[in-house]
Each structure stands twice: as structure tokens, then as C-alpha cells.
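Practice problem: predict the structure.
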Amino acid sequence: MIHLTINGKNVEVEEGSTILEAARKANIDIPTLCFLKDVNEVGDCRMCVVEVEGRRGLATACIQKAEEGMVVNTSTPTVIEARKVVLDLILSNHDRECLTCTRNGNCELQRLAQQFYVDDIRYKGERNVHEIDDLSPAIVRDFNKCVLCRRCVATCKKVQGIGAIDSANRGFASQVSTYANKSLNDVNCTFCGQCIEACPVGALKEKDSTKEVWEALRNPDKYVVVQTAPAVRVALGEEFGMEIGTNVTGKMVTALRTLGFDKVFDTNTAADLTIMEEGTEFLDRFQNGGTLPMITSCSPGWVRYLELNYPELIPNLSTCKSPHQMYGAIIKSYFAEKNNIDPAKIYVVSVMPCVAKKFESSREEMINDVDAVITTRELARMIKQAHIEFTTLEETGFDAPMGEATGAGVIFGTTGGVMEAALRTVKEIVTGNTFDKLEYEPVRGAEGIKKASVEMNGQEVKVAVASGLKNAQIILEEIKAGKADYQFVEIMACPGGCVMGGGQPIRSSKERATIDIRAKRAGALYSIDEASTIRKSHENPVIKKLYEEYLEKPGGHKSHELLHTHYVSRPKYKLGE
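Answer:
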């Protein structure tokens, strides 16, 4: 242990800790901007400078290691002036149109400006002006708001292993850009949105779809149906000041009805449907010599990654659409037929924790299933625009019968959840037995890669779970090399799964460093599962009825027509355009 003094307080921390970590342990706030724990620890922005007695110059708290007997001062006049100079220099080349920025009120730069009472820009002069990149269906890149913290670059490289964006040029011409300064739409970006979550300002954001949804809601000729993903219900409350991981399902449903949606359905129902189709597909491959390991296809960012980087492994992908796309197809066919509604008048909106779902719904292979995708953040904005007092809303349930789901469907929102839901069903179908023990702990948890084996009628089924594209690469390289000894693989593009999706509420770098956000959100989903009356997808009465009345059987002709798709090889870079 290391003993040091910060602002007169005695602090004890483990050897190897930084001054910033020591200060936070003592509840002493040191401002940061470029720092992102375990991702971007480079000390570039210099906002976190402090004085260390006996040393010349100022130390950078986020990278300077604490030493025995060190005496640190974090708020001397010299330190405060140094930070103000840094802040003024950043603001001098920043698009300060805060009132029209999606990050207004949740911007780390804005927060610093408030803390330092910035009332003027000292360094006035020429500013860089850049064209906004809004060509992708998922992400908008506005370098005019970039503060060159490079948190997005580090996330894309170190966490996801992609490198779609990087630092370019020097001095006043420095910028974060793409290969040949192409649009994100034309490079190896997977649209996972983790760069948005990492960005402290509004330089990266999801492509807004709320205007189209508002137009649909105002159109009397449209029958507007909304569905919500499992991870949304345990994160939406954060946008209204509620605790991380609060389950706001009932309030969310009430808010959606208040906004004017004709029907409010639960994507968890479609998750149960996905398990029936995906489980049947896996058993067919496993028992009849099909392509193995079979890899889940629920995460569109992951699917795009495979298409860009490992097209030779496309045959390993499940042909199942993701749950919300399946639901869109069912709503516009089965639901429309049962309720005598013209499918052409139905407008399906998906509320997702993911920005890559925007790309997915625009794919030619399934462009007619879902009409608009909005993120958790976009739904929160719509609720605020409608002046709905979210925290005071009464709780109501999803519309029946299409809103009924199981506990298996809800855990789709966290890493390992799809695998666990599939194993609950597949094991009972294969063995013909009913099992009371439904928790598969080996596929739960925060580890980037998890492996397990399950015995079914004397046969061992080996499975693997990966979250985060850098971990997906490890699994794919094993498969390519013929070293994979498992038959079923779940991959999610976002580290931690959908609860940490690129469309979820954005938390500050300090919160990300001090709170296990993933565990809180995932824990809420597991609690919903445990409290559910039905916890196995194949026992969902709505799904049973759907097959009896319409689809006939899992994996059948009608199911393949509506619920399955195909994937394509994509060039990593579009050049010469």
C-alpha cells in the first residue's frame, strides 16, 4: 500500500494506483476530459494537472503514479489557472452551439465550462470548419464539435479491435478521421456505436429517427406499432434521473401509449420466437452434419463485422433474423391478418439499445420488416418533448396477446443471455425432460469470452460466448484455424451485450470508472427473469399459438419465408467514389 497526502487528507491506495485514483478514493474531484479508464489513459488534454510538492511543473493526475509520502495539491491558484487555459484553448476551436446539440445537459465539456464559470473565450481567432458526415444509416460524425480527446479512437482500436477512426495530421490541422477521410458508411465501421458512448461531447451521435416517428404518429392513415427491446427497460430511467439498473417497464409502456402508439408490444416475445427458430436450426445442423459451430445473428454490428472481415465464415451464421426484425415481419403478416388491418398501413417502430439496428432495418434483405428504429436515448427525448413526467407515471402492461414473453426472452439483453435462453429450450427438446435448474452460470458474467459444455442425452454440446468485437476476432480465428471444439457460439458486438449498447444512456467517464454499469443493468434483467412465471421460450403460450395458427412449425416453410434471411460479403473500404 502507498500512503500520500492530497489536499491535507491522508490517503492509502494500492501500489500502482494513479493520483487520480487516489483522489477519487478520498472523494476529491479532479476534472478530466480525455481520460477513459482502461481505455484511454494518455494524459493528452491536461485538464487533470495537479501540483506535487518538491517537483517542478505540474503532474498529470490520470497517468502519474502515486508514491510513498507524496504531497499533492489539486486546487491551488496555479493549478486552476492552468486548467482554465487548457479549457479556453479547447473552446476556442469548438462549435459552441450547445442549445441545438443532442448532448446539451449531458456534455463533459459543457460541465467543465460551468464548473470554471467560463463567461468569455480568451483565445479568439480562426476556427476549423468541417463537413458533417451523415451518410451512414446509424452514426453522424461532426468533427466541428470534436475536442481531440481520442477516446473514440482508443475505444474503436483497443476495445473493439476495428480502427475505423484514427488521429490524422498535426498542429491546428489535427483531426480524428477515417481512411482517406471517407464517410463512416464507406469504411470498416460496424456501426456498433461504442464510439458514441465514449465521446464526451456531441462529435458523434446516432442518426436521429424521431422526426419520422412523430410524422407517423400524426398520420391518421398509419397504424403505428412500437416494440421495445429487453435492455431498454433497465436503462431508460437513467435519462430521468433514476438509479442505474432501475426496471421501468410499466412506466415505459405508459409513456409509449401517451405518445400515441396504437399498440405497445414487447420484443421479448420475438426473442422467444428467435429461440424456437434458432434452436431448431442448431439441432438440425448438430444432428445432420450441418455447418458448425453455428453462430448467433441477433447483433447487427457483429453481423456487419463478419461480412466485412470474415466473409468465408458467413455459412456459420444462423440464418435467423434478429428478434425485432422477426417481430416486424409477424406484425405485418399474422397480426395484420388476425386484426383485419391492411399491412401497408402498419408502421413498426423498434426501440433498441443499439444504433446498428438502424443499419439492420435498412438492409435490402429485410427492409420491409421495421419502418423506424429509435434508441433508448431517442425515446427519452420524445418523452421529454411531449412534456411527460416520466417518474410519476403509473405502470401498465404490454398489449396482449403479442406482448406476452418469458424470462428467457428478457435475458437476451446481456452477454450470454441468448445462449442461456437457447440451452433452456434445446436441452428439454433433445432430452424430452423438464429441468428446474434454469441458470447457466458459466455463460454469465463480465468476461469477454466464456466457454461451457452441456450434456444432452449422452452427447456433449460445447458452447462459447463472446462480447465485444475484439473478443469475437479471437473466436473467429480459432474457427478459421480449425481449432474450435465447440458447436454453438453467441457473439454480441458490444462489450457486456445489449445493456451496454451504443444507443443506451451515456454515462460520464467518472461514472464509468467508479460504477459497474453493466452489472447493474444486467442484474435487473436477471431479476426480471427470476420473477417471471414462465422462463422457457418453448412454453410461451403466444408462441405456441403462433405456430398452431400460422407458422405450422419451427424451421418450416412459412417460418423460413418470414423469419430467416441471408448475409453478404462486404468490401471494407469503398474507394474511388
